[in-house]
Structure formats: structure tokens, C-alpha cells
Amino acid sequence: MEEILRNLSKDTDGMLTYEYIANNVSTCSQIMPALIDNMRRADSTGQFVASTARFLAAVDREHFSSAIDELIEVAIEKDREHRYLGSLLKGIWGADYESRVNELRENDDNFRRIYKRLYSNSVI
After folding, report:
1. Which residues of 85-118 are buried (b: 16+ CB within 10 A; e: fewer)?
2. How many of the other CB atoms lie within 10 Å of CB of 62?
3. In angstroms, rounded to a whole number, what is the distance separating the alpha carbons of residues 15 and 120?
4. Residue 43: is its pLDDT beyond 80?
5. Which of 28, 30, 31, 63 has the fewest CB neighbours in a 10 Å radius?
6. How does the average pLDDT of the chain come out, rounded?
7. Helix 65-78 and helix 47-60: axis angle, to 10°?
8. Using CA atoms in the order 45, 38, 53, 113, what is the torsion angle rounded to 10 degrees?
9. How far apart are the C-alpha atoms of 90 and 87, rounded to whole Å?
């Protein structure tokens, strides 16, 4: 594992780490915190962080819930231009999220933070 993490430390934009997670999703849970830290360092725009959150949610949202939450927090922090945050709404909370906006805003801090950034003129 140390060699894998050492190789991934050369990742310059998060893509290598995303690909590693996608190709090794069934065996990388134990090093997920280190992988997320690597993505936090490498992904300056939030593109691959958001993609990883959506991917893990599609694979097994319950199993990867803490990693998904952390990745979403990183995406919110990194995606200053809001190019990737919108994809998280459907990818994480489902295609029907719009019908549950009030419930989600009340119960999910990450949803509320994303929604507020994307729809700043909305009453929250």
C-alpha cells in the first residue's frame, strides 16, 4: 500500500487517484482516507473529487458514506466556479432531489451548502 500511495503522490490533478479508486473500489477502503487526502492536495478544481463522490455513491453509498461526505466537503471547497457542484445534486441525492429540496436542506449540511452556492437567491 505504501508503494501505491507513493506513486499516487505524483498525481497532479486527481485523475490518477480517481482512476485508482475506480479500478480498485473493492479493495481500497482501508486506505480511502489517504486517497482522499491525496485528492485534496492534487485536485485544485474539484473535478475529480466530485467524480469520485458520485462514483462511490453509485457503487455503495452506505459503505462509502463517510468518504462521500468528505469528498463532497472537498468539492465544495475546491469548486469555486461551481462547474462540478451541480452534478453532485443528482449524483448523490438522486434525480428526484428537486422534489425533496426542503427536506434535504433541513437534514443534510452538504446538500444545503451546495444548494446555497448554486441557488444563492433562494430562501434557505
Report:
1. bebbbebbbeeebeeebeebbeebebbebbbeee
2. 7
3. 30
4. yes
5. 30
6. 94
7. 160
8. -60
9. 6
pLDDT digits 0-9 by tens, 4-36 = 999 999 999 999 999 999 999 999 999 999 999
CB 85 within 8 A of CB 117: yes
What are 78-100's pLDDT values in tens digits?
Answer: 999 999 999 999 999 999 999 99
* pLDDT of 121 higher than 80: no
Burial class (CB within 10 angstroms; exposed 0-12, middle 13-18, buried 19+) of 4: middle
Identify whether the C-beta of residue 36 lies closer than 8 Å to the C-beta of residue 67. Answer: yes
Amino acid sitting at position 80: R
Tell me the residue type at 35. L
Question: CA separation (Å) from 60 to 14, 68, 69, 81, 117?
Answer: 21, 10, 13, 28, 27
pLDDT by residue (tens digit) across 98-119? 999 999 999 999 999 999 999 8
